[in-house]
Task: inverse folding
């Protein structure tokens, strides 16, 4: 008999350099669409940390509780929902409808889903029968894992690094996203990520291809410590628009480079130093090179697996989890204003510090009369439409999954429109069903109209669920009151800003930067 | 040629019925009465799972990846990810407790598995603390009867004395399918391999 002690314990944390990724927000909206099906004023999750820390279970909070537990902190993690993940959960019907305490988003989704299913059952027959009635949808809904936020994991990005360093990958299986596309002049094409692909890409004309090729070669040969590769550009000071100018790239090419590769949501980056944009393009191309089809990977069974996996990391390091715990109050010392604990179901848990998502700290609620403290502020709104399709997205070569980016300039907007599509290949839908999420930052009073250019690329949509989600950010770092609040998941198509928030909250809570050490590499004798 | 097949086995049952102790007896032949933070004291702390291999015959071995609840069975917080792709489950109750407590809880775990797990999962119901049979409050017949009704394997055992422990895992091993099922072992993953690859890719930028 052999014995093996399988440990994630030799995780020692070494340095992980960290590229800041800017978050873009639009001005707060005056009003939201009246016809939106889901109104998500309470985005997602509770995560609180304490010492004993308290948390909720969104991805940001679960990563934090995992890291804090490994760090030796005593963590108590609570969530008002009876499932993990809050706003970053993937939900099936049963789970949602059984949950009396489901978030507003989830509950309304469930109600709408159920009504639809009933209506279709009554009507009987037709296209709706499969997969919408019977086993795969109405009976159990277990075949579905519908993400509440559309994000993919950059294969060489920060979240991947976090997953590998914490060994959380052992709980998860990943698949590639099959393609990365960009919209230009009315049609979609694959995003070229090397000079070879640029040469073949239908996105550009002959002369533009040469220029783009030079630009990509510059990026591929660029080395930080070798000035000869910099072609006279100091990327730390020169602006990105000047880099474009040097290579003579057309505006349309700039659109796909800046939006589909550097993944900026708007055009502000052009008038800023080129460095972060170049870092991001390199991150994209590295991610692309890793598995080949696209720069993205995705966990089988949906994004909701991610918070669960980090929660397990926390639990095996002694963290305590409580789901289905409604938080009645967050208590502060009346004298000092410092956090003292939380009350749930009449019981008060005392803790020194608390970490949680904005929904636990008054997001979307009026300030109570005579006091309270404004802890979170709305920074913008995101409109998202979950669309159910019975076919792959047209123009993607029948891909089982895809990301499509519509650069803002292409459709006269300030912010890009994203489409993220997954299917049964990722164990998130019944056979031959695709789930596509179309999203953008809200710019007008009719958000649903703003995503039309994205919806039009999908072909016929079997069903559609639209939500308008306010984004919240904390008003204070938490150093005064020991209340540390995370940010709402933003409109970006990946998890880089989520990990950035983890680093930020860690720094605020611990007073020192989070340093991920490389795991000891086991060398065979 | 000997062939080893890996299977994921999950532990279920109420807190303090001896789930982790049974596994520690099986994997390391150890037992500890000491229970402050029991998972730390018995060596599950920081372990994603423990493994143990049993030989069925000269040609066949079964390697168990044994997953502990990590305390997440309390407060309704065991995540679906725990059950995902499990091939076997050991559901434990305490025979020194009256049936309406941990035995009843074991029954609810059976229902939960029937709802969440793969239909082919092998379930073993175990009455633990057989060394304390003098103060038994749940009868062998009760456990046996329920197991028969539900088509479960059944055993009574003592993590403390070791009685019945190896036998129950052997019985599970014999019941598991001979052909490798989809497990999370790297070789049979459907998707991309992520582990360790972050280190392999040289980083040309500061990202």
Result:
């Amino acid at each position: 008999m052999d014995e093996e002690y399988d440990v994630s314990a030799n995780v020692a944390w070494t340095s992980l350099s960290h590229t800041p990724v800017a978050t873009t927000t639009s001005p707060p909206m005056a009003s939201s669409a009246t016809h939106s099906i889901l109104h998500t004023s309470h985005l997602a999750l509770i995560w609180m940390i304490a010492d004993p820390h308290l948390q909720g279970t969104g991805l940001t909070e679960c990563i934090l509780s995992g890291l804090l537990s490994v760090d030796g902190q005593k963590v108590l993690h609570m969530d008002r929902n009876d499932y993990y993940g809050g706003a970053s959960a993937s939900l099936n019907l049963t789970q949602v409808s059984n949950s009396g305490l489901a978030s507003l988003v989830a509950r309304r989704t469930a109600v709408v889903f159920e009504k639809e299913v009933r209506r279709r059952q009554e009507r009987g027959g037709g296209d709706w029968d499969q997969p919408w009635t019977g086993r795969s949808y109405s009976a159990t809904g277990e075949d579905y894992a519908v993400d509440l936020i559309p994000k993919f994991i950059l294969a060489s990005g920060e979240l991947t690094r976090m997953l590998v360093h914490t060994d959380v990958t052992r709980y998860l299986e990943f698949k590639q996203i099959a393609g990365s596309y960009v919209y230009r002049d009315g049609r979609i094409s694959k995003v070229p990520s090397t000079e070879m692909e640029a040469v073949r890409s239908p996105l550009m004309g002959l002369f533009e291809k040469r220029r783009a090729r030079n630009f990509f070669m510059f990026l591929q040969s660029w080395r930080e410590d070798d000035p000869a590769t910099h072609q006279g550009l100091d990327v730390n000071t020169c602006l990105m628009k000047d880099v474009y100018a040097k290579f003579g790239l057309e505006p349309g090419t700039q659109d796909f480079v800046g939006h589909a590769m550097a993944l900026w949501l708007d055009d502000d980056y052009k008038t800023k130093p080129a460095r972060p944009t170049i870092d991001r393009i390199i991150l994209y191309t590295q991610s692309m090179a890793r598995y080949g089809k696209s720069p993205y990977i995705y966990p089988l069974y949906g994004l909701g697996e991610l918070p669960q996996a980090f929660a397990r990391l926390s639990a095996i390091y002694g963290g305590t989890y409580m789901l289905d715990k409604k938080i009645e109050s967050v208590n502060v010392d009346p004298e000092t204003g410092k956090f003292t604990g939380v009350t749930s179901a009449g019981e008060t848990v005392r803790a020194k510090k608390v970490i949680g998502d904005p929904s636990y700290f008054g997001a979307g609620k009026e300030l109570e009369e005579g006091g309270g403290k404004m802890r979170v502020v709305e920074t913008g709104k995101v409109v998202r439409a979950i669309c159910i399709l019975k076919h792959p997205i047209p123009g993607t070569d029948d891909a089982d999954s895809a990301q499509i980016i519509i650069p803002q300039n292409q459709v006269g907007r300030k912010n890009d429109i994203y489409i993220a599509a997954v299917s049964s290949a990722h164990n998130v839908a019944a056979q031959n069903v695709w789930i596509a999420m179309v999203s953008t930052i809200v710019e007008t009073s009719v958000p649903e109209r703003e995503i039309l250019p994205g919806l039009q690329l999908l072909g016929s949509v079997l069903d559609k669920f639209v939500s308008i989600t306010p984004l919240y950010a904390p008003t204070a770092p938490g150093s005064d009151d020991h209340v540390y609040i995370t940010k709402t998941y933003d409109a970006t198509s990946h998890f880089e800003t989520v990990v950035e928030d983890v680093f930020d909250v860690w720094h605020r809570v611990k007073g020192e930067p989070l340093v991920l050490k490389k795991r000891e590499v086991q060398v065979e004798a | 040629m000997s062939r080893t097949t890996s299977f994921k086995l999950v532990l279920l049952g109420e807190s303090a019925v001896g789930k982790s102790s049974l596994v520690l007896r099986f994997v390391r032949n150890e037992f500890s009465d000491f229970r402050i933070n029991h998972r730390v004291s018995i060596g599950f702390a920081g372990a994603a799972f423990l493994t143990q291999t049993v030989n069925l015959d000269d040609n066949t071995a079964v390697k168990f990846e044994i997953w502990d609840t990590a305390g997440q069975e309390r407060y309704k917080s065991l995540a679906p990810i725990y059950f995902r792709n499990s091939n076997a489950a050991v559901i434990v109750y305490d025979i020194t407790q009256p049936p309406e407590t941990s035995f009843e809880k074991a029954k609810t775990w059976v229902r939960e598995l029937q709802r969440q797990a793969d239909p082919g999962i092998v379930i073993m119901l175990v009455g633990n603390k057989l060394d304390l049979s003098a103060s038994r409050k749940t009868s062998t017949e009760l456990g046996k009867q329920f197991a028969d009704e539900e088509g479960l394997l059944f055993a009574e055992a003592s993590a403390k004395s070791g009685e019945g422990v190896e036998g129950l895992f052997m019985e599970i091993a014999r019941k598991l399918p001979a052909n490798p099922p989809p497990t999370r072992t790297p070789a049979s993953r459907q998707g991309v391999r992520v582990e360790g690859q972050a280190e392999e890719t040289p980083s040309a930028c500061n990202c």
In short: The longest strand of chain B covers residues 3-13. Confidence is low (pLDDT under 50) at residues 36-43, 183-189, 196-207 of chain B.
